[in-house]
Amino acid sequence: MARISRYFETVRGADGVTRMRVRLEGPTLLHMPLLNKGTSFPQEERVALGIDGLLPPSVGSMEAQLERTYAAFRREPTPLAKYSNLRALQERNEILYYALLEQHLAEMLPIIYTPTVGDAVKNASSIYQTARGLSLSPLNIDRAAQVADNCILDDVRILVATDSSAILGIGDQGWGGLAIAIGKLALYTAAGGVSPFRSLPIGLDVGTDREDLLKNTSYLGVHQHRLRGAEYLAFMDRFVDAVRARWPRAVLQWEDLSKDTAFEVFERYRKKLPSFNDDIQGTGAVALAGLVAACALRGRKVKDEVVVIHGAGAGGAGVAMAMQAGMMKEGLSQEEARARVFVLDSKGLLVAGRAMEDYKAILAQPAARVAGWGSGPFQLEDTIAKSRATVLLGLSGVPGSFTEPMVRKLCEHVERPVIFPLSNPTTSCEATPEDLLAWSRGRAIVATGSPFAPVKVDGKDVPIGQGNNAFIFPGLGFGAILAEASEITDGMVAAASYALAEYVRDKHLANGLVYPPVEEMRAVSEHVATRVVEQAFDDGVARTKKTTRAAAGAHVRAKAWQPRYLPFEKA
Fold it and tell me: Are 222 and 205 a contacting pair, CB within 8 Å?
């Protein structure tokens, strides 16, 4: 018997069939999205569970339901309307929702995730329909343990929590950022194989500094300015304590925290519960994987590259750290690697001695490294030229910040420059793939953070890879869950990155791709999760007794959740 909730659990009968045993009946059962099978309830279950006559008479198959719901999705006129359609389905019948995503993941990924989720976050209060997840705020944080107990799920294994301070490229969104946690968890299930019965989105509404939200009577978040300093950390302490008490085996993904708090929060809690920051570590891992693949495509090594990173927020800093780690893996010292990774914020190149936040200081170039460059501050075009950059990565959120002169200068330094404008959503992208390929005369290897259509170069379609964190975090989280990791180590994150590069090398490098098609996200996540479980054993943090390092791949495949209806029995 697998206890999922105080209201239901899965049981395996003597006949070997897994069933759902429920303690609910009647309309209450039909309003529980994890349990509702809609028109697919067979007649005998309708009678036994007190829902006879509450549904249309005909018993339908999941296939018929999928056909009907997909047609309804396609009829919606705008991406935001399609988003609301899918969210309504998720709140009506969650198993069917994931079956639909599985069938149409490439089409629906831009709806449930970037770029459309950005619009959903901005409009969260106006499109709100149904409660999901937990919302903690200054109004109830002193009751955090009671709030956690109000959740009906007793064995949550993955949580995504955001304070909404740095959502995508659109910044502080207050309570509305809960939508990003919902979208991430949808990918944990659809792309990663994590059971939705084991997942929970959490909004940490510590206030907002957006005056337009605070003055809007329709805004559903707490109407106060953001907590800062000791008050903010006390809030987080209460939240983490409640999680550890209620769900002691859960993995926590920190999501879209601002650069001012992301590093402090991550370091404060990473030893208290297995957790990682997707903006720092996930973004770094996916960017490094893309560069490893691009180097293999060009017959180069990561340590050969000179990398310029435009943007020094949590994502940019995470990418810089990952690039340095990749170079050190190939034999460079830390000082040598640092000398090849140039990071710029809104004031220009990070150089030692310049005023900057503490987390940026470890990424700054020594003054001696740029002594012959002239007087600073050095902006992006100067840095590309003077560093003789071969790789340009964008995490600034500033649209149009990559220009033709910059690209032409890159082409002077290397035959095939690597250019990844990774900022999300699409409207924040530093340059379009079409322009980058035109300016480089087809020489650049281009990938983006949001989806773009192929670009025609010399009569041929050039696919644009998507450096999407969703190639990393579902497998990283699922692997940590299956390993029952006591901590998510830097080695496990690196294993996720190189697993993605390995997958591309084996299946797509010959076709010139540096990231896989999104249709293969489930297969990618399986490969990533396997490598993460193996690394957890290597790092001594795997606590599971259910598998071994050698059997990690088989264990991942066996435990991956599938969207199918189970037969029900009344408890």
Answer: yes
In this prediction, residues 419-445 reach a mean pLDDT of: 95
Residues designated as active site: 113, 184
Q: Is 569 helix (H, G, I), strand (E, B) or coil?
A: strand
The rounded distance, in Å, linking the Cα atoms of 515 and 371 is 37
Which CB contacts under 8 angstroms, 24+ apart, belong to 43-48?
A: 45/567, 45/568, 48/568, 48/569, 48/570
Distance in angstroms (rounded) separating the CA atoms of residues 321 and 324 = 5
What count of residues does the chain have?
571
Closest alpha carbon to 49 in 65, 33, 31, 30: 30
For 206-229, what is each residue's pLDDT tens digit?
Answer: 999 999 999 999 999 999 999 999
Contact criterion met (CB below 8 Å) for 140 and 114: no
Distance CA 288, CA 350 (A): 21
What's the CA dihedral at 13, 91, 107, 69 to 10 degrees?
80
Q: Indicate yes or no: pTM above 0.90.
A: yes
The tokens for 173 are 């969104």
Region of 85 (left: φ > 0; alpha: ψ -120 to 50; beta: rest) is: alpha
Q: Are strands 391-394 and 418-421 parallel, antiparallel or unpaired?
A: parallel
Give me the percent of the chain exceeding a pLDDT of 90: 95
Pairing state between β 251-255 and 307-310? unpaired
The pLDDT score that the predictor gives to residue 260 is 86
Q: Is 396 helix (H, G, I), strand (E, B) or coil?
A: coil
Number of H helices, E strands in the chain: 24, 18
Tokens 């940026």 correspond to 360
Nearest to 78 by CA among 38, 110, 42, 31: 110
